[in-house]
Write a structure and sequence with these properties.
This protein has 14 helices and 14 strands. By secondary structure, the chain is an alpha/beta fold. Strand 1 and strand 2 form a beta hairpin. It starts with 7 loop residues before the first helix and ends with a strand.
Length: 399
């Protein structure tokens, strides 16, 4: 299977070409302006670019739902005050189909037409595309991706929202090797994110005495039947499958693997969620031995139960960590604006993010995030769960 690759140099070249060819001018917004709505109220536009169509649409909608839910709560409670003015939030969302070049084009439009000081995006390719110009165009990237590379570039206007994925690898590896064995077949998503996860996991697996017996990827934007790929992988008699991408197609990989007779365990990349995979295939039975991120509904944090209840009432669906983390992040950004005394100076807002996190109301703390680390990422606790005898149980982290 041929992988889709997004080399950094090629991506930067493509984005720069897009900037030159697709924009009428290279005018930079030194400050993102707030506006007024039809009622004469002060409004802050918050941008979002993510997959709202195609195979990853459900994933994109969940991340957007979290942002929108926080915005609606804030507005319903009268908005928020900065320097004597009361502001409402307007979320401007654009579909990028999970394509980095589309994310870059959307970001240009969001900044130039809507003056957004912050743009949320839920995939590393899109984040990297925006990092080519976000500091010069002066907007914060609210990055919902666990890819460590995005905060290792020195881009001071990027905030990584979820935990780094490399923190999961020791625990995931230790669990499945002990329970199932040392032969691994890798079948992750063909995105840059999947490639980077693979480059971290496979060497660690081998250092622990494991063997990689098969290594390919699945392009979920093109492939809907995984029979041939999985059949080829199972010919090598793996004990464990490394899988991941959006929850729904990842769950279908599990289903087909079981139907083809696979009895082993699964390492599930953190993008896919165990509870969402269960809903796709009907039960946890097929997911026995899968290890991944602990589902949000199992969280014990102060704000989690009420958030889950409100989310179900609003969207008639179970909440996810994507929606919860992005919900929390918007509250943090609003509190940072209040602490900075500005809604239209992204640099000042970024500088006050730690104050913003500390000032989030307790009942909104679906996760505990004490600070933004020196690398620009939320320093939240990693929680891991595995499916054992039909339910998700917590797994202690291996350091």
């Amino acid at each position: 299977m041929k992988k889709r690759k997004w080399p950094i140099t090629a991506m930067m070249t493509a984005v720069m070409a897009l900037m030159l060819a697709g924009c009428n001018s290279s005018t930079t917004n030194n400050h993102a302006d707030s506006g007024n709505n039809d009622d004469g109220k002060n409004v802050v536009n918050i941008g979002y670019s993510g997959p709202l169509s195609g195979p990853a649409a459900y994933y994109g909608e969940r991340t957007l739902n979290g942002v929108k839910m926080a915005a609606e709560e804030i507005n319903k409670n009268g908005g928020f005050e900065v320097n004597g003015k009361t502001y409402q939030i307007n979320v401007v969302s654009l579909d990028d189909k999970y394509l980095p070049n589309e994310t870059a084009a959307n970001a240009k439009r969001l900044v130039q037409e809507h003056h957004t000081p912050i743009i949320f995006t839920p995939h590393s390719g899109g984040v990297m595309a925006m990092q080519v110009f976000n500091q010069t165009d002066n907007f914060i990237i609210a990055a919902y991706t666990s890819e460590p590379k995005i905060t290792e570039t020195g881009n001071k206007m990027t905030i990584r929202i979820p935990p780094r994925y490399d923190g999961y690898i020791p625990t995931f590896t230790d669990y499945v090797i002990k329970r199932f064995g040392k032969k691994l077949a890798a079948l992750p998503t063909a995105t840059q994110y999947g490639k980077d996860w693979t480059e971290q996991l496979l060497p660690y697996w081998e250092k622990q005495g494991g063997e990689v017996v098969y290594n390919t990827s699945i392009d979920f934007t093109k492939d809907t039947d995984f029979f041939t790929i999985i059949t080829n992988a199972l010919k090598e008699k793996p004990d464990v499958l490394f899988i991941g991408g959006p929850s729904e197609p990842t769950a279908k990989v599990v289903k087909q693997a079981r139907e083809l007779g696979f009895k082993g365990g699964f390492i599930v990349m953190d993008q896919a969620k165990l509870d969402e995979m269960k809903r796709t295939i009907g039960s946890y039975e097929m997911l026995e031995g899968a290890i991944g991120v602990m589902p949000l509904v199992e969280s014990k944090e102060a704000g989690a139960p009420q958030f889950a209840e409100n989310y179900r009432a609003k969207y008639n669906a179970e909440p996810s960590s994507e929606s919860a983390y992005n919900y929390l992040a918007l509250y943090a950004f609003v509190e940072a604006m209040k602490a900075a005394g500005t809604v239209d100076d992204p640099v000042a807002i970024r500088e006050h993010m730690n104050e913003g996190l500390k000032n989030i109301p307790e009942d909104k703390q679906v996760y505990i995030v004490p600070s933004v680390g020196e690398d620009g990422g939320f320093e939240s606790k990693i929680t891991v769960g595995a499916v054992e005898k039909g339910k998700v149980v917590p797994i202690e982290l291996k350091k």
